[in-house]
Amino acid sequence: MRFFSGPANYINMIVNILKIVWPFMCFMLLVTIAFGHAMFILLSDPKAVGLDPNGNNFVINTKNNANNDLGDYTISQDFNLSDPLDNYYVSLPYSIMAVFFWILGRWDQLEEWNFWPIYVLTIVAGILLVIIMQNMFTSFMAGVF
Predict the structure, then answer these.
(1) Spatial distance between the Cα atoms of 130 and 107, rounded to a whole number of angstroms
(2) 141 in Cβ contact with 17 (< 8 Å)
(3) For residue range 76-125, what is the model confidence (pLDDT) as tens digits?
(4) Is residue 23 classed as helix, strand or coil in its secondary structure?
(5) Is 61 part of a structural domain of the chain?
(6) How far apart are CA 51 and CA 79, in angstroms?
(7) Residue 43 is part of which domain span?
(8) Has residue 92 been placed in a domain?
(9) Is residue 89 packed enough to be buried (19+ CB in 10 Å), middle (13-18) or exposed (0-12)?
(10) Residue 55 domain-assigned?
C-alpha cells in the first residue's frame, strides 16, 4: 500500500479500530445470542404457554358501479406457528437473527404476541442493545480514531 498512501491511511485506521473494538463486538454478539435464546424459549412452542398470535382481518368491498353487488370478502391472517416465516422465534438461528435486526430497527411480529414477558424482554433489549451498546460502540470507535 506504499503506492496508495491515501487509502492506506484509512485501511490502517480501520484495522486499528477493529483491533481495539473486537472484544466489545464479541460481547455484543453474546448479548444478542442471549436475547435470541430467551425469545426462542418463550415463543418456540407458543401453544405450551397458551399463546395465540393476534391476526388481522381485512374486509374487501367488491361493489361495481352498475349496481352489481358481488358481496364482501373477509381475509383473515393465518399463522403457521411451526414455520420460521410466520414465527421468527421457532428456531434458534432465526430467533437470533430476528433479535439482531432489532438493533437495526426491525421489530417485526412483536405486536402479534399479547404476552407481558415479551413486552418486558423487548423493552430491556431495546434499552440495552439499541441505546446503551450502540452508543458505547460508537464511543469506542471514536476513542480509537
Answers:
(1) 12
(2) yes
(3) 667 777 777 778 888 999 999 999 988 888 877 777 777 888 888 888 98
(4) helix
(5) no
(6) 12
(7) 4-49+80-143
(8) yes
(9) buried
(10) no
Largest CA distance in the chain: 79
| Comparison of pLDDT for 118 and 64, the residue scoring more | 118
Q: Is residue 54 situated within a structural domain?
A: no
Helix (H) or strand (E) holding 63: strand 57-63
pTM: 0.72
- Residue 66 C-alpha cell reads as 352498475
Rounded CA-CA distance 72/101 in Å is 38
CB atoms within 10 A of CB 42: 18
Q: Residue 88, Cα to own-chain centre: how many angstroms?
A: 9
Helix intervals (H) in 44-85: 46-49
Q: Check: CB of residue 42 under 8 Å from CB of residue 49.
A: yes
